[in-house]
Amino acid sequence: MSRKTLLNSTEIHIILHRLACQLIENHNDFSNTVIIGLQPRGVFLADRLTKILKEDYKVNDIKSGTLDITFYRDDFRRRDAPLEANKTNIDFIVEEKNVVFIDDVLYSGRSIRAALSAIQSFGRPKKIELLVLIDRRFSRDLPIQPDYKGRKVDAINNEKVIVQWKEQDGKDAIYLIKNN
Amino acid sequence: MSKLSVEHLLGIKYLNKNDIDIIFQTADHFKEVINRPIKKVPSLRDITIANLFFENSTRTKLSFELAEKRLSADIINFSAGQSSVKKGETLIDTVNNILSMKVDIVVMRHPNVGAGVFLSQHVDAKIINAGDGTHEHPTQALLDSYSIREKLGSVKGKKVVIIGDILHSRVALSNIFALKLQGAVVKVCGPTTLIPKHIKSLGIDIETNLKKALEWCDVANVLRVQHERMDIKYFPSIREYTQLFGINKQILDSIGKKIVIMHPGPINRGVEITSDVADADQSIILNQVENGVAIRMAIIYLLAEQIKRN
């Protein structure tokens, strides 16, 4: 197994600020926009972006939540390991709001498809956008593409993208793991 | 999340502590789902469930049906009163006919003890026991424990007294198993004629004085007197039962602390519990009903997870 660093913590820091600026360009003061981190790993990115928007760009009133997609996945009863559910926390109205889904890695697109179904339980958003830190190109099973992406990666199927967060793993880093 | 250690839910006595933890964790997520504007998830779109009720039921049947619908399962309902059972068909024939319709899970209530176990040995479907005679009612016990956990933070170490007709109660037996498994201290309280002879072998104490029982406990689970299961007279009169074992505001005020009041339903208001107690803020009877849907969703979901796709 070999490990290649795709992004170090400095590069991640720069990318996060660039993504925050792109969000501000499209959503101004976020008065009609909500941020939703997809469980489990998208939540770290959503929290980090919310913090940057509030502290560095003075966007004070941002509504952010978390969405668990376990019960909407299309691989229930198709996996060896049971699916583990996480907490959904959406304590605001999504009806007629602009919703930005946030996830760490976009791979097959199936998680996003599940998220699109899940969010309908909370109302009918005006618009849904997708922000991802890593866009694994050429791996999609569904016609789903991100609106905002940190970095594009051309990884083949036996390679895995691992995103580490300071809060969870001690440091920010993104690796490409290759099984030889 | 690990898997359940059982392939069916036939009774609490077949579960371990880890199974209960898994069911409760899953129910936590479903409780959030049933409080959304749209209370439905698509998980069980390709699962068919048969609800077989060979005995009357309102609450349990509705709760299961709602849980199944919330999970997007297909449902067929069967009540013995309007079925071919009346024409002499056996249980296995009835169920096999239903299974021929490609049913994955059977939820069954039956007047005979062990009907669920019997069925699980003869048919190829997941069996959920929704009450078998005076034996077990596992989903009720799980939702009762879940409601205690929700109200008091945990079940471990809590003092729970089960009051009333213990002898005929499947709810009592399943509750005793579930509460003991989670580390609660359990007592039963009721007329000696309605307390089973060997109940102490389950590691619980008997208290025949209602006031002492209430002074001791954190939670009182009040049971209905089951006249339909009584073939002889177990106490002189309803009035006497109410005077000695009925929960009213006066007795609760006299114990000097606020305990949690539970009841599995249906309530005989004015017999085992008065209306002002049943509707008081220390009563969690309606929370039990809401939690029943979440718990049953969790059990159905976890058992369905074990069904391999063709």
Automatic annotation (TrEMBL), chain A:
InterPro entries in UniProt: PRTase-like, PRTase_dom, PyrR_bifunctional
SUPFAM superfamilies for the chain: PRTase-like
Taxonomic superkingdom: Bacteria
Domain Phosphoribosyltransferase: 4-161
Pfam families: Pribosyltran (PF00156)
NCBIfam families on file: PRK05205.1-5
Protein name: PyrR protein
Organism listed in the record: Urechidicola croceus
Automatic annotation (TrEMBL), chain B:
Gene Ontology annotations of biological process type: 'de novo' pyrimidine nucleobase biosynthetic process; 'de novo' UMP biosynthetic process; amino acid metabolic process
UniProt domain Aspartate/ornithine carbamoyltransferase Asp/Orn-binding: residue ranges: 156-302
Pathway named in the protein's UniProt entry: Pyrimidine metabolism; UMP biosynthesis via de novo pathway; (S)-dihydroorotate from bicarbonate: step 2/3
Binding residues annotated for L-aspartate, in chain numbering: K87, R170, R224
Catalytic activity from the UniProt record: carbamoyl phosphate + L-aspartate = N-carbamoyl-L-aspartate + phosphate + H(+)
Gene Ontology MF terms in the entry: amino acid binding; aspartate carbamoyltransferase activity
Aspartate/ornithine carbamoyltransferase carbamoyl-P binding domain mapped to chain residues: 8-150
Binding positions for carbamoyl phosphate per the UniProt entry: R59, T60, R109, H137, Q140, G265, P266
EC numbers for this chain: 2.1.3.2
Alphabetical keyword list: Pyrimidine biosynthesis, Transferase
Description of how the protein assembles with itself and partners: Heterododecamer (2C3:3R2) of six catalytic PyrB chains organized as two trimers (C3), and six regulatory PyrI chains organized as three dimers (R2).
Protein function: Catalyzes the condensation of carbamoyl phosphate and aspartate to form carbamoyl aspartate and inorganic phosphate, the committed step in the de novo pyrimidine nucleotide biosynthesis pathway.
Family as reported in the entry's similarity comment: Belongs to the aspartate/ornithine carbamoyltransferase superfamily. ATCase family.
Protein name: Aspartate carbamoyltransferase
Originating organism: Urechidicola croceus
Encoding gene per record: pyrB
